[in-house]
Write a structure and sequence with these properties.
Elements: E1 25-26, E2 51-52, H1 97-103, H2 108-111, E3 162-163, E4 169-170, H3 185-190, H4 196-199, H5 216-219, E5 257-258, E6 261-262, H6 278-288, H7 290-293, H8 299-306, H9 320-330, H10 341-351, H11 372-375, H12 385-391, H13 393-397, H14 402-409, H15 430-436, H16 441-444
Antiparallel strand pairs: 1-2, 3-4, 5-6
């Protein structure tokens, strides 16, 4: 189905800190020298390790990233991307993108050369160990505390380093889980799409976090939501089917359950956020675009609820016991979708004294139906119970059993008052009705009733 809901996701192109750095430092104290009074040789004090002050957060000091630097489509204030799509990361490095991009004039693909050829979100686009870092940093694993400029010590970039029993430095590993998406960077690069069009202006940040990963709203600048042809109106070839970027189940619906969260539609997308009032709102969304709902739900999922196989209690609002009488008169929502009037409604109405067959000790003290001059008078007027029964017999059977009707409409032979419910022309067609199903006739007529012979 060709409906919006796409995420052009660059899962790890610029969305995490890198294991390379050329951060700002506070200047180390100058080496001191002294000469003996007798003109002896001078002795130098080893230079102290620098204290690092940048690269620990996107903005120096830990402030919020300005909206203009966030990915297109990000809210402001920004709560970050959905955890169901982009699992939380554990960044164990310190890195200053701004210094590398602005000061050192390094392009994105210098540190992420695999980005232009990447065809899957699972591709690792981070630099491999120190292969690229050593172009500028004189890193020597045999000398982990090396003091140099640009910094070369392990703890210049790696946080919380430890030393094992053998004296070797052990660095904490990065944890950047694969995004729960389909993502082909190669296709986007071929279209001339720049990194900042999906990731925001990373060149102005120090540490790049998952907050710089793409937002679905931004994807719609190319992937038009709901375009019937499946192609964007601004960038030819940008498909609008949800499954273009979202993972799918075997039945073709979108995968919704992930270890890190549940995939849910946002409010801005067709007002389809599944909030507390969604059961009430969903009929309008589904009525306007059932195919959109079909992206995540099969027809069987809907039928199970609408046919009453599944009965979610949340379908009714609070205080429904007091409100349901009015709704049932209008049959909206349709009670019989989930309830059997004779097995569900009637027993409750009998217990509380609403039904005609309720025990005398619990019978209601107020009249439920309109005044008898309207409700049950021989002359039928608007509001007469016969009209109401024809309009919504389901409402009647929620309180009445068949015997209640027979008391008035049955012939004397079955204990009734003999008030005929039939119209003046009924005898012209009753023979065919009797031949098809005589059972309803015997509810009010005994077998020997002469009136039945007109219809036999």
């Amino acid at each position: 189905m060709k409906h919006g809901a796409l995420l052009v996701a660059c899962a790890t192109l610029l969305g995490a800190a890198l294991a390379v750095a050329a951060p700002d430092t506070k200047p180390a104290p100058a080496a001191s020298s002294s000469a003996s009074a007798s003109g002896g040789s001078a002795s130098a004090t080893p230079a102290a390790a620098p204290t690092y002050t940048t690269g620990f957060a996107p903005v120096s000091g830990g402030g919020a990233v300005p909206k203009k630097w966030l990915p297109p489509g990000a809210d402001y204030p920004d709560n970050g991307p959905a955890a169901a799509i982009y699992p939380n990361q554990k960044l164990t490095v310190r890195f200053n993108h701004k210094r590398h991009v602005i000061n050192e004039k390094l392009a994105c693909n210098y540190c992420h050369p695999g980005g232009e050829k990447s065809v899957a979100a699972s591709d690792d686009l981070l630099p491999k160990k120190h292969d690229l870092c050593t172009d500028c940093h004189s890193i020597d694993e045999a000398e982990p505390n090396k003091v140099d400029s640009p910094p070369a010590a392990c703890n210049a970039c790696h946080l919380n380093t430890k030393t094992n029993d053998k004296g070797a430095v052990v660095v904490q590993k990065l944890s950047i889980p694969t995004a729960n998406l389909k993502m082909n960077h190669k296709v986007h690069f071929a279209k001339g799409i720049k990194c900042a069009e999906c990731h925001g202006d990373v060149s102005q940040l120090e540490l790049a976090t998952r907050d710089q990963l793409p937002r679905m709203k931004g994807c719609f600048s190319c992937h038009q939501n709901g375009d019937a042809g499946g192609l964007a109106k601004t960038t030819a070839g940008a498909k609008s089917e949800c499954k273009t970027c979202h993972l799918t189940e075997k039945d073709g619906t979108l995968k919704q359950m992930f270890a890190t969260g549940i995939l849910m539609p946002p409010k801005w997308l067709k007002n389809s956020n599944h909030s507390a009032d969604w059961i009430e709102r969903h009929k309008k969304v589904a009525g306007q675009d059932s195919g959109y709902c079909g992206s995540c739900h099969t027809e069987a999922y809907c039928v199970a609820c609408h046919d009453g196989k599944v009965k979610p209690r949340s379908v009714h609002p609070n205080d429904w016991l007091n409100m349901h009488a009015v709704a049932s008169r209008f049959d909206n929502p349709k009670c019989s979708s989930c309830h059997s009037q004779q097995n569900f409604c009637l027993p409750c109405h009998t217990r509380v004294g609403v039904a005609q067959s309720s025990p005398s000790g619990v019978a209601a003290t107020v009249r439920f139906h309109p005044d008898p001059t309207v409700w049950s008078a021989p002359k039928r007027v608007p509001g007469h119970h016969s009209y109401e029964a024809q309009k919504n017999i389901s409402a009647c059977v929620s309180c009445h059993v068949e015997r209640d009707c027979v008391v008035c409409h049955g012939t004397q032979g079955v204990g009734g008052a003999g008030a005929s419910p039939h119209g003046p022309s009924f005898t012209n067609k009753c023979d065919s009705m009797f031949a098809k199903n005589p059972r309803p006739c015997f509810v009010c007529h005994d077998v020997g009733d002469q009136k039945l012979k007109q219809c036999q």
